[in-house]
Amino acid sequence: MTFANLRRKARQQGQGMTEYIIIVALIAVSAIGVYAMFGQTIRNQTAGLAQEMAGKNSASKQAIKQAGSAADDASSKANQGKGLNNYNVGNDTGKNN
């Protein structure tokens, strides 16, 4: 292989790595968004499943009910009109509530 071929191959590998990093970043940002919207629902469902597996029945039903109400709340917040000036208002981030 000549030096020019080695340089071209190195640039192509660098381009592939850059594309991979961009895709991973997009997946991470979307996962953060989903968790921000449904985080409370996911935590309550996980708590309900863990308590069911431990053999506790009454508390797990409460956690599952809380998960349902959190899902309803997230759905109603998702249906509200949002713009760039108020996209975060009302979400469970602890700010702008």
Automatic annotation (TrEMBL):
The chain crosses the membrane at residues 20-38. It comes from Cupriavidus necator (strain ATCC 17699 / DSM 428 / KCTC 22496 / NCIMB 10442 / H16 / Stanier 337) (Ralstonia eutropha). Residues 77-97 have a biased composition (Polar residues). Keywords: Membrane, Transmembrane, Transmembrane helix. This is Pilus assembly protein. Residues 60-97 are annotated as: Disordered.
